[in-house]
Amino acid sequence: MKEILEILENNPRIGPKEIATMTGITEAQVASKIKEMEKKGIIRKYKTVIDWEKAGEEYVYAMIEIKVALRSRTGYDAIAERIAKFPEVRSVRLISGGHDLSLTVRGRSMKEVAFFVAEKIATLEQVQGTVTHFVLRTYKEDGDVLFEKERSERLAVSP
Amino acid sequence: MSYSRKSARSALLSPREVKPEKFVAEHVRQVPPSGIRKFFDLVLEMDGVISLGVGEPDFVTPWHIREACIYSLEKGTTSYTSNYGLLELRELISKCYKKEHAVEYDPKSEVLVTTGVSEAADLAFRAVIDPGDEVIVPEPCYVSYKPSVSLAGGTPVPVSTYQDNEFRVTAEQIRKSITGKTKALVLSYPNNPTGAVMRKSDLEEIADVVIENDLVVISDEVYGKLTYDGAHTCFSSIAGMRERSIILNGFSKSHAMTGLRLGYALGCEALIAAMTKIHQYSMLCAPVTAQVGGIEALKNGDGEMQKMTREYDRRRRLVVSGLNKMGLDCFEPMGAFYAFPSVKSTGLSSGEFAERLLKEQKVAVVPGEVFGECGEGYLRCSYATSREELVEALARIEAFLDSL
Fold it and tell me: Are B248 and B369 contained in the same domain?
């Protein structure tokens, strides 16, 4: 099972037939294992890593750290879930250290992101303070480097 | 007077009179050039070739190892090391063999770090061969053994292995090749080019022949970490073989460190001391930067290595099943990163097949006869290349077969 996941994690377009050849289990078994893992939510979604900048689309990303004042009877989960509902918010994480929550927010401009934070996040009752870091450049995303990949220049034929 | 003397001297120095070839020693002249070379030149002339002819990993050396090398350079670690290599590296190698194979080597006197396994093999041959000694070399095998034996003054005695026996050499075959002059036996499993591995029981039978005939074994186990479905058996872990063998290994294949040139030899003190004698006069020590990388590889490299091995395993199945499906009979290789399909069904020799495949479909493979006469009729296809390229290469080979 782990073997199938490892293969899919890097390239979800590889079909059950090819996975079967690579792992030595039958195609039907691979297909049913994948179905099962999709159903159980082990496989959440198949995604594509896109370099939007190369595609000519401008996006602005910001990382936002939030200090939360917990109200009685509601924990971090409640505020995190509320924040996660905004489509502008790409990720929400509970973190250790000086702040409590860390978000990634995507917008079309710095102004748009700044206003979103000021109007929708900072105004939440439990939010005590926010720090916004705008992303200037992304070098690696989800395990994939976004700059020129290194290639070793091998001889075409060697003993 | 002085004028004529000058002209006599310049006549002596005239370039037409010099034949540098004649300076080359006779026994060097007699060593045939590598068969791979010719093919290499052919490939270089072409564009858009997918190469399955490469005998090294397509992975770059894991970053943590490169980082350790870079840091050592920043600190100024650029001097000679002990002839034997850095003690820390030897201790790690020794620990690794104790843990994985239950064979103990004293890091102070029984481990020698070399400039790649190639140097270790050369040292081993030079350390044990007297003029006229015969060395049994099972084929197909890596291209260096026979020339190295010859250059050391010995006579290589090839023994053919066959697909029927999954390219394993048998104790019986070795026994039949033994003469009064036989001194040593070369074993190289997992094997380049066939991908064959030896079972423990095969090695035990061979060990009996080794004892009966008082031989020394030089066992090149550089592909040991690339063994699929089961663990590699180190030859010196067989009862009675520690004192009768030199184990050669290195970091090129397991940790994708080919260009860093780092290998080692393990053996009892007398043999390692003899090899070190030659090493200290010819090489002095292995490159220190590579040795630092080796320390990092053994300390923290298991995770990256296993990741690479798992990927090779997937590609192995992909290639072997692809070749078999298109009708090129290919036995299942259980080690290294080569598939060794037969092209006998096509009626072409392996040389013709490889050359036409290159010219017509731009896929480079290495004809099997380069690795010994019994390799004729087979191709070495390295699967140390990306999956996308392998799939494309398989499609092109199939197209070539259809065009025949």
Answer: no
| Range list of β-strands (E), B102-154 | 111-114, 134-139
- Mean pLDDT, range A81-101, rounded to an integer: 95
Calculate the average pLDDT of chain B: 95
Q: Is the pLDDT of residue B1 over 50?
A: no
For the stretch B195-239, pLDDT in tens is 999 999 999 999 999 999 999 999 999 999 999 988 999 999 999
Q: Residue A49 has what pLDDT?
A: 84
Pair (B115, B47) in one structural domain:
no
Same domain, residue pair A81 and A124: yes
Q: Are residues B149 and B229 in the same domain?
A: yes
Q: Taking each helix axis from N to C terminus, what angle separates A27-40 and A2-10, rounded to the nearest 10 degrees?
A: 80
CATH number for B361: 3.90.1150.10
CB A22 to CB B318 under 8 A?
yes
Pairwise CB contact (< 8 Å): B39 & A157: yes
Q: What is the pTM of this model?
A: 0.90
Structural contact between residues B58 and B253, judged by C-beta atoms closer than 8 angstroms: no
Give the number of domains in chain A.
Answer: 2
Residue of A nearest to B48 (CA): A156
Strand segments, DSSP code E, in B209-299 are: 216-220, 245-250, 263-266
Say whether B43 and A158 touch across the interface (CB within 8 A): no
